[in-house]
Amino acid sequence: MKSIFHLTLLLITISGFSQNKISGFVTDVNQQKLSGVIVHVEENNLETTTDENGYYQFLNFPKGTNKIIFHLSGYETKTETITNNGTEITLNIILTEKELHLEEVIISTLYNKIQSQNVMKVEHASVNKLKENGATTLIDGIATLPGVSQISTGNSIGKPVIRGLSGNRVLVYSQGVRMENQQFGEEHGLGLNAAGIESVEVIKGPASLLYGSDALGGVVYFNPEKYAPFQEKSADFEQRYFTNTQGTSTTFGFKASPSNFKFLVRGNYTSHGDYKVPNGDRIVNTRFIEKDFKTGIGYSNSKMATDFRYNYNNLNLGLPEEDLENSGFRNPLFPKQEVANHVLSLNQKIYFKNSKIEGDFGYSLNNRKELEAADEIALSMKLQTTSYNLKYYFPKMNRFETIIGIQGIDQTNTNFGEELLIPDATVKDFGAFATTNYSWNSSILQAGIRYDNRKINTSTHGTEGEEGYFEAIGKEFNSFNASLGFKTDITNHIATRINVASGFRAPNLSELTSNGVHEGSNRYEIGDGNLKNEQNLQVDLNIEYKSEHFEWFLNGFYNYVDNYIYITPTGNVIDGNDVYNYVQNNAALFGGEAGIHFHPHPYDWLHFTSSFESVTGKQSGNNLPLIPANQWKNNVRVEFESFKYFKNGYSSFFFNYTFMQNNISEFETKTPDYLLINFAVGGKVTLGKIAFNLSLNANNLFDKTYVNHLSRLKTDGINNMGRNVIMSLNFDL
To answer: Among candidates 158, 247, 283, 331, which has minimal Cα distance to 724?
Structure first.
């Protein structure tokens, strides 16, 4: 009897296990068994791994509907939904290899290495990613990067700020050549459209070794889109709509590489109405229309590579002022700016057995007009710039890599309007540098030295003693600069970098020669022809940790600037305008950025990123102007599993908190804190033979009333934009 009882109990136990058992094999697409695959039952947190034969099993699989997650590093994570109805379940799984995400090669540094092999910490972001995160313009996108902000005038004008430095202290590169479009002006934006730009790199800190004058604060480097792969062609069409401004942006591109020759063409038309603030009012004349055209042709073989590019950008933008009579909707009213920018560039590489020569040659024409009325051109300036950058890469000797080079520009500014902001002038630059890179094990040491010379000559204009009088000057500025950087891997997961570099900036024409009212700021500005070079020394320390599911970074910097040039009130008044002088004093900026990226296993579809950034600027115990407020940025991103008609899906919530800015200069006012919440969702939609990428972004989701400390409209009591929903469709034709 006892034996019968034990036998019955055993049968019940076996039956129970069999009814709740799930098992199977995990293989790749070639039917190779995969061992070590983590198999996770979400319902009751059970977890096991496949054996050497790729086999797994659970004997107590929960009843009902359950999700099972299969994860192996290097393969796409797969989730299956299974219903246990009391029968034994066999579930075989095929995992596909992940698309290989190689580290991006950093183009803005001399040695063009991937980031993990780079001595300098360079921020890198694809333009598509910036759009995916809700950027309305190119400057909006780069202002989301750690340590980067913008000085804005409405929705159309933005100037990059890197760790508190802006204007002529930040150099902008596109198509491999420097952008010259009167960067001294607060109302002079980038002159670039996001169409046809693939990614952006930001060097935070003095880059004079690489680029000469005007790179004292850093460099924003835009990489143009790549050509089509060999013997392939493609076309795409993108349409975006912005609810706040009722704006549209239309882009079409085509590229082909039928042989060693390759070419591309891309056009964009963007139109925005006046932007709306949270109370429902529209800010009159913040509208703009932008037209952009880019084309390129290239040729390459085993001995050489040639890349010729041309970009035309036309921007017609309104300037908001008080008591403007509103009319129309999209066409800018007077006063307005019309800016046409032409950029031609040629990149030429010649390959030898173990070395190469590379040259970048550029020509740009910036035609800037400010119109007070249809027949009144108040300001008209043409800035023509030719540039060259020649580098020779020596053969690698043991662990040494060495580069020498020369750079230069020849620039002419000519006035045609009734008003002059700066006089007719010529600027000539010449620079020569040498740098070497030594690597061993997981460590890299890099050093370099450079000499620069800048000559500025201006013409006399106007009547002495009156507004608008410019005395002819001939100035020459010289500077020697050096840099030293070290990068090493402390462990397999922790790397650190330290860089010490000097930089310089020659005074610009506005600082040397100003004598009149700057209409954009309502100040009577007086320059000083005896200003000296700004010369700085910056120390950067970076430490970062990377593992498969968790990353963190910490960046710190201290930047000391000799002869920092700034504008200060004198207490005098001319024609009802306060008088400001350009003066010099020593200054210091310090701060940094810190952040994390967490995507926990086995929930690899979940990503959490958070970063904090801070900068403080001081001179003679006072605060420097135009220092961005501290920011804390957070993002929760969910990546969807594929559905029948919707693949590569994602959704994100952004929680961006900007702290109160109390550290202000004498002609600034405090700015209160604010929290902005943004939302994004998107993915690839497939309907039969039609496939397109769809994205929806809601910026300032809860229509928060706020003003950014660096907004130039703040002094007029004008808030930043209210809620803005962006809808985007992108078709691969």
So the answer is: 247
